[in-house]
Structures are given as C-alpha cells and as structure tokens.
Design brief:
Layout lengths: L3 H20 L7 H15 L7
C-alpha cells in the first residue's frame, strides 16, 4: 500500500501542473486527458479488489 504522504505529494504535483498551465495561458482542462483518466478509473473499478 502506498504511503499516505506520497499520495498527498502526487496531489500537490497535480495542482502544480494546473498552476503552470494557467501561468502559460494553456487550458487546464483537457477533454482527451479526462477521457483517458475516466477510462482507467472505470476499468480499475470493474476489477476484483485483490488486483489493486
């Protein structure tokens, strides 16, 4: 199981990506990226718990 502090670090890094995109005038929301992430989450949710 992942260490909680490492998971929180990953969240902070994701927030940093959004900040950098805003500074550069890039769109923070990327529909294609969101679709890939949702597909991944959906596939994970359909797997037995032992696979996590």
């Amino acid at each position: 199981m992942a260490d909680l502090s490492k998971l929180r670090e990953q969240i902070d890094q994701a927030m940093e990506v959004g900040r950098v995109k805003r500074e550069k005038g890039q769109a923070v929301f990327d529909p294609k990226r969101e679709e890939r992430v949702l597909d991944k989450v959906t596939n994970l949710a359909q797997r037995p718990e032992e696979d996590f």
